[in-house]
Amino acid sequence: MSAVKALAKFFSMLWTGVDGLRKVLHLLILLFIFSIIISALSSSTPVVPRSAALVIKPAGRLVEQLSGEPFDRAVAELMGNAQPETLLQDIVDGLRFAKDDDRITSVLLDLSAMPGGGLSKLKRIGDAIDDFQQSGKLVIARADYYGQGSYYLASRADEIYMHPEGALLLYGFGAYLNYYKAAIDTLKIDWNIFRVGTYKSAVEPFMRNDMSDADRYALSELIDQLWALYKADVEMARGLEEGTIDNVLEDLVAEVRSTSGQLAEIALNNGFVDELWTRQQVQQRLVEIAGTNGEDSDYPVANLDDYLQQMRLLKGDGTADENVAIVIASGEMLNGSQAPGTIGGDSTAKLLREARRDDSVKAVVLRVDSPGGSTFASAVIADEIEALQESGKPVVASMSSVAASAGYAISMGADRIFSSPYTITGSIGIFGMFPTFQRSLETLGISTDGVGTTPWAGQLRADRELSEEIKTIFQLSINEGYDHFITGVSDSRGMSKEVVDSIAQGRVWTGEDALANGLVDEFGELEDAIAAAAELAELEEDEYGHKLIEPEIDPGEQLLLDLLGGAKSWGFDASRLSQPRPAIARAADVLEDALSPLTRFNDPMGIYSHCFCVFE
């Protein structure tokens, strides 16, 4: 009996110990969770040294709007697999804040991870660099390799350094496309095409095996102008003789031979860079300018993201009792609701509707960076712009790198239109495509037959040939769409339809030509468009704010992001949960990006105003 009691006592003590351990573990887990919550809810403002170099390190392409739903992108950033992009406005704001900030001694442009960006975007940053330099502070540019986009920014710096084993890759602008006519014939696909416009070349890859003479002429004119602007800006910024770039490219083989294949030497010998320095040598130069951080031989740094977070908290969000709203329309234009980085007819219209219903908003700037897309989506957006104007709120269009085809269609009704000389615009024309595969199926022994109540039943099946009657209807609809487009331009711009037709026809223009042709009102950047919108709304100078209207993260999603951010501050690396994507998945992404202009088209009528005209 005593043995049984002893055994019972042992198990009782064991259970008491296990239960106590359970309570301690619960307490520790709760403390950990509460610590994360407190950390998330009381996130401190990033610390900026009292004396530091502002480091601007663009990663990925320059964009007007980050792509993807805000919550999805934020999670991807925490997981370490977000698509690399740099917001243009962040760089401009960083330079603007730093100009009068005594803590910022200099700016380092670290351009090694920047592949490029639209020329108008580069010009806007270049102008912001010029403005910053009026403070007397130095701008240093460094990269292991410079491409055309990154070098355009570097040319504005006071000092340019490149790695001795690097290279400056200047090669000019080009316009090259794949053409599929032979493949389509081989696969026995009937790619039915309907278009209006001599220069509306978006459909040419499906009806030709090479570039048409009209398209070759128009694109040559366009890229020649852009390249001339690029060369003039770079040569002026670097103090090079006019024609230096042309001379180097014309004699490139001789230049490479003269340096025994040392490409970096060519950049140095021709004045494109100041020194061929290693990263350590550049760091030492920055120590000379900014000093040391007191702990090691490194220089004190203010990273752009941390700096912006602090300055925007200190300066506020820029809103006031009366505001000019900014709505960004960036990317291809598709029907329905789309994530940021793509223009959705419904989603962009919703943002404009928010601006109309917001009593604090007195005017709107529509920032457009789009090659176009769905004509129906553009009509939905244009309707909301008209509703804004009817409500008494003026609308100003501000064109970024490209505002062509449907991108021009949503701009043309604005009270004023601003562009850059470097903007690609116009391309006023439309097209439709409807492929059928009945001949392809026949080769596999598959045929289609059936009955319908009218001659039109079953006409729009991809496995049946289009009849001549339905082709006629398609073309008449395209013709009417084109006439509606040029009529809209005529009414909006105060030009005759005949004049509009002569500069339309799908022709793409630079901002300089667009101004000469009356398609835009004046040159100016986003800030100029905001000032013009305030003037049209009769707002007092320096008494109005600006309000960016964009999709927002809901409170539940924000709480989850805060918790993840808090966990990160405790050393939890969320990127460990992300599995590396296999090579075949990455290859599929590349293919999807290449085909996306076609596979993502979703206009309900199959009618598009799109320009494949982004050149860098």
Write structural notes for this entry:
The protein has 616 residues and is α/β, with parallel strands linked by helices. Strand 15, helix 15 and strand 16 form a beta-alpha-beta unit. The mean pLDDT is 87. The protein contains 22 helices and 22 strands.
Helices and strands in order:
Elements lengths: L1 H40 L10 E5 L4 E3 L6 H10 L5 E3 H12 L4 E7 L8 H15 L4 E6 L4 H7 L4 E4 L18 H6 L3 E7 L16 H26 L5 H7 L1 H7 L4 H7 L5 E2 L2 H12 L10 E3 H12 L7 E8 L2 E2 L8 E2 H13 L3 E10 L1 E3 H16 L4 E10 L1 H4 L6 E4 L4 E3 L3 E7 L1 H6 L24 H26 L3 H7 L4 E3 H6 L5 E2 L2 H11 L8 E4 L6 H15 L13 H17 L7 E4 L6
Parallel strand pairs: 1-4, 1-9, 2-3, 4-5, 5-6, 6-8, 10-13, 10-21, 11-12, 13-15, 15-16, 15-17, 16-20
Antiparallel strand pairs: 7-18, 14-22, 17-19, 18-22
Helix pairs in contact: 1-21, 2-21, 3-4, 3-12, 13-14, 17-18
Strand runs, count: 22
* CATH class assignment of the largest domain: Alpha Beta
Q: What is the fourth-level CATH superfamily of the largest domain?
A: 2-enoyl-CoA Hydratase, Chain A, domain 1
- Return the domain count: 2
Strand content: 15-25%
Query: What is the makeup of the main sheet?
Result: 8 strands, mixed
Tell me the CATH topology of the largest domain: 2-enoyl-CoA Hydratase, Chain A, domain 1
Structural Rg: 29 Å
Report how far apart the termini are: 92 Å
What is the overall pLDDT average? 87
Structural class by secondary-structure content: alpha/beta
- Would you identify the CATH architecture of the largest domain? Alpha-Beta Complex
Shape: globular
Number of helices: 22
* Percent range of helical residues: 40-55%
**Which consecutive residue ranges, at least 5 long each, have pLDDT under 50?**
none
